[in-house]
Amino acid sequence: MKFVFSISVLVRALLLSALFALSTHAQAQTDPLPSWNAGQAKQAIVNFVHDTTDQASPKFVPPAERVATFDQDGTLWVEQPVYAQVRYILDRVPALVKVKPELATVEPFKTVLSGNGAAIATLTTPDFETLAMATLTGLSVEQFSAQVKAWLATSRDPRWDQPYTALTYLPMQEVLDFLRTSGYKTYIVTGGGQDFVRAYAQAVYGIPPEQVVGSAVGTTFGYDEDGKPLLTKSPKLLLNDNNAGKPEGIHLMIGQRPRMAVGNSIGDRQMLEYTKAGDGVRLSMLVLHDDAKREYAYGPAQGLPASNVGTFTQALYEQADKQGWTVISMKNDWKKVFAFD
Amino acid sequence: MKFVFSISVLVRALLLSALFALSTHAQAQTDPLPSWNAGQAKQAIVNFVHDTTDQASPKFVPPAERVATFDQDGTLWVEQPVYAQVRYILDRVPALVKVKPELATVEPFKTVLSGNGAAIATLTTPDFETLAMATLTGLSVEQFSAQVKAWLATSRDPRWDQPYTALTYLPMQEVLDFLRTSGYKTYIVTGGGQDFVRAYAQAVYGIPPEQVVGSAVGTTFGYDEDGKPLLTKSPKLLLNDNNAGKPEGIHLMIGQRPRMAVGNSIGDRQMLEYTKAGDGVRLSMLVLHDDAKREYAYGPAQGLPASNVGTFTQALYEQADKQGWTVISMKNDWKKVFAFD
Fold first, then answer.
1. Mean pLDDT, residues A36-42
2. Is residue A97 domain-shared with residue A236, that is, in the same domain?
3. CB pair distance less than 8 Å for A277 and B198
4. Predicted structure pTM score
5. What is the pLDDT of residue B29?
6. Which of A6, A45, B166, B301 has the fewest CB atoms below 10 angstroms from its CB?
7. B274 and A221 in contact by Cβ < 8 A?
């Protein structure tokens, strides 16, 4: 008895000292955001996570309420010069015309098939909606997912000659990891297609399909020729996850107001307003693309060149200032932009 | 060195033997489904969980794909003689008329206010839709949730004189717990109102709001008189989560085919078909209410009395048999129905 007792005391002492050494070591070593320069933006994230996850903090948030939402295009990965999904839709047209040859002589398919960049650039929004419905619907959800994955495996961004999935921002990947390690559920809330993003969100961001909220067409339940049940993507927009559609989509799909939200354009405004208006500590952030050298520079906030893709107006910049949102300067706040840099 | 080594060997041996004792003890003691009688249904659940979570099993399912979906009314809690949400809607009418007195003389509000049960029973489906839209929309999502919670705190089921939230089936609560302990995400997929169920799903079932899929009206983003952003429930049905709407809602909200699904009526048929049609091991189950003494008996499958609430036809019963779904007999499979029994 005496022997066992003394052993256990000894073991406990050894274990405690080992744990202590380990934890001091970990604290001294680990910066959760190594690709961020010291500054307001990095500090805002670190403070937010500390304040909401430290049991001793008066602003502590229980794990079940730790929800963080991220726009995708321009916030988690590159959106210039055109959204990846736009390239996907254009790239799908030849395969579509193979199946439906009658489309080859019909606009806007004819123009896309011509490969004439200048002509393609003149396509209107209704043209584009026609292309989107033709390429994104009428097939089963499994077929669609397989087509997107196949495209991602072979297509390359023209500027960096990288797969699109490599064009995610390393600093934002670190934020996603840091939040998850701190008990947050991380969601993508995108104006892009929900099923499109789901096809790669787990592999690229560690975000499972149920945590992707996006614009969505409905599906129709039915049976294939063997009587096997299947869901077919139907050509009817069910959710337009832009502007006011973002908080509306968040309520539908998540049912809780986020504690943190990050965007980069006027399409994210309502999501950031809704997030910041909640009680307790809330963090709303905007990525400002002010780094033409390492990525792109566009606004037109702060005198940056105007852009139709990911418009960030001066009014949005001023609203951020007034409402206590944090603007992330790509140029100043990010030590590194891409993992391949 | 020698001393430390021998201590560590000793400690390891002690720890191993302690762990071994603990685990054999746990295995011998713990039945994850103590309110279930031994039988096919219980065995089907135990086998399913074992086959899909044992790393050595050829049917192993990675944790990210462990999705189980449950109908609510009649599957997780009592739905007879009328759905709890129907009682809620009728109970809300007096408060609604206080705010909008002009409704007092308008049908169907007038009939509901009369309190005449026989007259209320004659209300048509369009009448009921009018009542639903009037009581469930036009207010903020937070106001709605607060009203539902307040109602649940005071209302009582007339048969057992219990809060509605006490009328959940203990055996199904055990299945939810067993699945979650085994790394499954448990979802409610209900024809009832998504926001209605979200108001209590965490407290009653341990299911967070983002894991409740249900029929839903849209919301409209706007600002209150102080300029604070808010979401108002709008009187337009966005998702009808019944029949084919169940697998469609599952795809929209979860984005994965369930591994397991449980229902109790013809409204769950497509969800069970869709689930069972997936690859690998899938479990589809139906609760048969054949226990008038402890709960209710209705079908009309197996010669049970017909019912408009939770109809379980003989054709559904035969489909279950043909497609390898498991029917749970409340009478035979459940040792105990309610925790308060």
1. 98
2. no
3. no
4. 0.91
5. 59
6. A6
7. yes
Tell me whether residue A25 is in a domain. Answer: no
Nearest-by-CA chain B residue for A211:
B254
- The identity of residue B6, as a single letter, is S
CATH of the domain at B279: 3.40.50.1000
Contact criterion met (CB below 8 Å) for A201 and A154: no
Chain A contact set for B231 (CB, 8 A): 247-248, 251, 274
How far apart are the C-alpha atoms of B249 and A138, rounded to whole Å? Answer: 18
Which of helix, strand or coil describes residue B101? helix
> Using 50, 70 and 90 to split pLDDT, how confident is the model at B22?
very low
* Closest residue of chain A to B224, computed from CA coordinates: A277
> B84 CB near a chain A CB, below 8 Å?
no
CB atoms A218 and B248 under 8 Å: yes
B274–chain A nearest CA distance, Å: 6
For residue B208, the chain A residue with the least C-alpha distance is A64
Q: Which domain holds residue B150?
A: 84-154
CA distance B234 to B223: 14
Tokens of B307: 């019912």
- Computed over every residue of chain B, the mean pLDDT equals 93
Q: Do residues A147 and A61 share a domain?
A: no
Q: Residue for token digits 């726009």?
A: A71
Residue B220 lies in a domain: yes
Helix (H) or strand (E) holding B99: helix B84-99
Contact call for B219 and A270, based on CB within 8 A: no
Which of B119, B154, B189 is the endpoint of a domain? B154
For residue B221, give the nearest of A10, A185, A248 by CB distance.
A248
Does residue A195 share a domain with residue A108? no
Q: How far is B239 from chain A (nearest CA, A)?
A: 9
Within 8 A of A248 by CB-CB distance, chain B residues are 218-221, 231
Q: Is B209 on the interface with A (CB under 8 A)?
A: yes
Phi and psi dihedrals of B223, rounded to 5? -130, 145
What is the predicted ipTM?
0.91
Question: What helix, strand, coil percent values describe chain A, rounded to 5?
Answer: 50, 20, 35
| Residue A15 within a domain | no
**pLDDT for A29:** 59
Q: Is A28 contained in some domain?
A: no
User: Residues near A159 by Cβ (< 8 Å), separated by ≥ 6?
Assistant: none
Spatial separation of the C-alpha atoms in residues A198 and A145, rounded to whole Å: 8
Is A213 in the same domain as A323? Answer: yes
Report how far apart, in Å, the C-alpha atoms of B67 and of each of A217, A228, B43 are: 23, 20, 19
> Residue A225 phi/psi, 5° resolution?
-60, -20
The DSSP code for B304 is P
Q: Across chain A, what does the average pLDDT equal?
A: 93
Which residues partner with B188 through β-bridges? B70, B212
- The SS3 assignment for A185 reads strand
Of B195, B216, B256, the CB nearest to A209: B256
Backbone φ and ψ for A144, nearest 5 degrees, come out as -60, -50
- Residues of chain A with C-beta less than 8 angstroms from the C-beta of B198: 255
pLDDT per residue over B108-142, tens digit each? 999 999 999 999 999 999 999 999 999 999 999 99
Q: What percent of chain A has pLDDT over 70?
A: 91
Q: Which residue has the tokens 């609203």?
A: A319
Nearest to B92 by CA among B80, B78, B103, B81: B103
Give the per-residue SS3 of B230-254. EEEEEEEEEECCCCCHHHHHHHHHC
Find which of B252, B269, B271, B284 to mutate to test the A interface (most A CBs within 10 Å of its CB). B252
User: Cα distance from A117 to chain B (closest Cα, Å)?
Assistant: 35
